[in-house]
């Protein structure tokens, strides 16, 4: 090995014609002797490129290309990218590529690497020369990148990959880089190429480059290979391009990934498996990407499995439980999520720092189900009662969920006095939330809803208007609530106008629900023919949507939730139509509609209730009682059937009054604002001679009816 560090005199001779010279031995810029190093630096600073090249060739016995490669490296290391590029452009890689390919192929024919002193076969370029030239190409690519020419840089970088692939079509064997820099240069090029394509804005080319790296065994280390897989998954997820696998990369046929998201998920799952087996280190980005990917396709249970597989120490207990709770709640397993959140706020974690996110998530989940109202109140109270005062945002969120939970608790409360107290606390908490976050649409929506349920219609109307303004009139829930509030004021035509305005902006599913509300408002205005026509339009739209879904069976999983909602809506339409035809005395049409409803959902309490009303209208009281009994056997707290049962019992004679009264009192326990129950209690009191009590009941019924919306709000 030629080494100027030894202090020996260089032998000056003419450059040989073969590609061999110093490159057959190891070269390093640091090998220049201390005696000549200072002169060397000053010379490079003062002379032109051609003079420096000539000096290198004469001093170190280099050929033309090698001298330029070394000089270009020095210029690159100094940050003179223009000068480096000028030097590298003088190297004719196209003419040298066949020799480089031959040299690499010759190297790999021998399983045992040559020693540094071994003689290179005649006419074959040495591996050191190959490495030097590959480095020149790589540095040329990097220089172009630094100068902002990323596309040209990528093309230069690709030359390295083409040369090595031509020489090693089956991948890179182990040990090839023991006595040269070939493997290092090649691996650097593998990692650089997709980055250059990304900077050039050609994401498709970047994806091809990443896939090319992964298709063959290029002897990348586990961590570097994992980095390539992670980067490919990242660009597939966030690159906003659909890059399907080409046929030659689909060895499993139909089992191959069919989309960029599927391919990304498979890559991330492979990486998570490597982490679990200890092949690579834990990388938080892998989990972040997997969380995003599985979330957008709705695979939250699979995500929870991988969270559970995370090794101890990756997450602390509270964070792990919180993450799992998020997964299970998104998967619809609310009870499992609540159980985990209860652990976070339990005794075992009492000595640790309070986990604010868990408290808020627990309160939010409980606010969505009245059965967990008390648990939700506890979560929200823990948040509010923290010693260290949190930000106004967190406090407002806690008060909002607390108010909703109080409202839910009031609706299932059996005690009148306790119900009144809970309703008051509900409005107080929501008002506190509104003070700090008046621009929060959820707060204004819940305020409007609770005021409507408590029949504070003016306050409800104002909150609903503020909600609509906050949402810029883009919320169908807001339009629907506003329409119901207006209907509670007995302004049915105005409510219908609100619905018609909303229909112009509504999406498909929202439009279906608004059309049903429009029909209900037309019934309230005693326009049954218009209502029937509106229902006909709604049914035709639902059928058209069902036909569309049938023609696209591959997208069934996408339409699944919508299909369930459409089926429930269609069921409600048939039940509504049965009620209309019953009022009109069109028994055959009413029966057809009832049969349709029962065919869709036989154990539906409302379907059996509608059947009971149908029999009651024909004075078939025993049959009506049977139907109402079936309805109550399905759902014992179904208030309409409880009230209707009492009405039929009243028609059977005075001896049934005590039983009817008990039914009505039970109905009022469940729904204190049911005006029909109050009215029938008034009738019983009147028939029993309690006129003052009857008058009070009639007054309550009248006031409640005047403030009742045309549809239930909860």
TrEMBL record:
Pfam family, one: TPR_16
SUPFAM superfamilies with a match to the protein in the record: TPR-like (SSF48452)
InterPro entries membership: NPG1-like, TPR-like_helical_dom_sf, TPR_rpt
Sequence ranges of the TPR repeats: 605-638, 675-708
SMART domains per UniProt: TPR
Organism: Hevea brasiliensis
Domain of life: Eukaryota
Keywords: TPR repeat
Record-given protein name: Uncharacterized protein
Keyword Zinc: no
């Amino acid at each position: 090995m030629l080494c100027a560090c030894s202090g020996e005199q260089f032998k000056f001779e003419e450059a040989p014609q073969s590609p061999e010279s110093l490159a057959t031995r190891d070269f390093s810029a640091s090998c220049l002797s201390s005696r000549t190093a200072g002169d060397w630096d000053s010379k490079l600073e003062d002379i032109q490129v051609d003079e420096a090249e000539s000096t290198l060739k004469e001093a170190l016995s280099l050929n033309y290309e090698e001298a330029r490669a070394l000089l270009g490296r020095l210029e690159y290391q100094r940050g003179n990218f223009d000068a480096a590029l000028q030097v590298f452009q003088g190297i004719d890689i196209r003419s040298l590529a066949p020799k480089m390919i031959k040299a690499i192929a010759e190297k790999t024919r021998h399983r045992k690497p040559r020693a540094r002193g071994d003689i290179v076969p005649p006419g074959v370029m040495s591996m050191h020369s190959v490495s030097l030239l590959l480095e020149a190409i790589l540095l040329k690519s990097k220089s172009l990148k630094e100068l902002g020419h990323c596309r040209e840089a990528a093309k230069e970088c690709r030359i390295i990959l083409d040369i090595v692939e031509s020489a090693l079509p089956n991948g890179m064997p182990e040990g090839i880089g023991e006595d040269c820099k070939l493997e290092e240069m090649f691996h650097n090029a593998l990692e650089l190429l997709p980055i250059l394509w990304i900077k050039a804005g050609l994401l498709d080319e970047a994806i091809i480059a990443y896939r090319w790296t992964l298709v063959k065994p290029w002897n990348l280390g586990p961590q570097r290979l994992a980095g390539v897989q992670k980067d490919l998954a990242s660009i597939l997820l966030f690159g906003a391009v659909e890059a399907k696998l080409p046929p030659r990369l689909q060895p499993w046929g139909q089992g191959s990934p069919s989309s960029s998201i599927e391919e990304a998920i498979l890559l991330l799952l492979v990486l998570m498996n490597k982490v679990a087996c200890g092949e690579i280190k834990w990388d938080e980005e892998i989990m972040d990407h997997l969380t995003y990917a599985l979330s957008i396709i709705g695979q939250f249970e699979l995500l929870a499995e991988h969270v559970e597989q995370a090794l101890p120490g990756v997450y602390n207990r509270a964070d792990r439980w919180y993450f799992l709770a998020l997964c299970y709640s998104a998967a619809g397993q609310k009870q499992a999520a609540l159980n985990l959140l209860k652990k976070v706020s339990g005794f075992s974690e009492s000595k640790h720092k309070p986990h604010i996110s868990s408290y808020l998530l627990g309160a939010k989940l409980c606010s969505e189900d009245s059965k967990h109202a008390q648990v939700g109140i506890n979560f929200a109270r823990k948040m509010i009662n923290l010693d260290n005062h949190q930000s106004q945002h967190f406090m407002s969120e806690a008060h909002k969920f607390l108010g909703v939970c109080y409202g839910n608790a009031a609706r299932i409360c059996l005690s009148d006095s306790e119900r009144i107290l809970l309703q008051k606390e509900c409005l107080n908490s929501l008002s506190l939330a509104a003070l700090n976050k008046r621009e929060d649409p959820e707060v204004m929506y819940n305020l409007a809803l609770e005021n409507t349920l408590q029949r504070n219609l003016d306050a409800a109307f104002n909150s609903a208007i503020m909600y609509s303004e906050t949402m810029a009139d883009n919320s169908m829930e807001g339009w629907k609530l506003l329409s119901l509030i207006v209907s509670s004021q007995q302004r049915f035509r105005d409510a219908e106008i609100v619905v018609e305005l909303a229909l112009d902006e509504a999406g498909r599913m929202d439009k279906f629900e608004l059309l049903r509300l429009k029909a209900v408002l037309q019934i309230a205005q005693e326009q049954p023919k218009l209502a029937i026509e509106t229902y006909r339009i709604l049914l035709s739209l639902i059928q058209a949507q069902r036909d569309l879904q049938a023609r696209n069976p591959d997208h069934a999983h996408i339409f699944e939730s919508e299909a369930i909602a459409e089926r429930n809506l269609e069921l409600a339409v048939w039940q509504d139509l049965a009620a209309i035809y019953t009022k009109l005395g069109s028994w055959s049409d009413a029966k057809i509609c009832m049969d349709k409803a029962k065919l869709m959902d036989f154990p539906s309490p409302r379907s059996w209730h509608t059947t009971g009303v149908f029999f009651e209208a024909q004075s078939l009281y025993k049959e009506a009682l049977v139907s109402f009994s079936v309805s109550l056997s399905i759902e014992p707290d179904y208030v309409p059937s409880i009230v209707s049962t009492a009405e039929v019992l009243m028609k059977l004679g005075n001896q049934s009054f005590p039983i009817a009264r008990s039914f009505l009192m039970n109905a009022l326990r469940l729904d204190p604002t049911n005006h029909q129950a109050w009215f029938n209690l008034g009738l019983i009191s009147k028939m029993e001679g309690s006129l003052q009590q009857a008058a009070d009941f009639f007054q309550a019924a009248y006031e409640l009816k005047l403030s009742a919306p045309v549809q239930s709000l909860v």
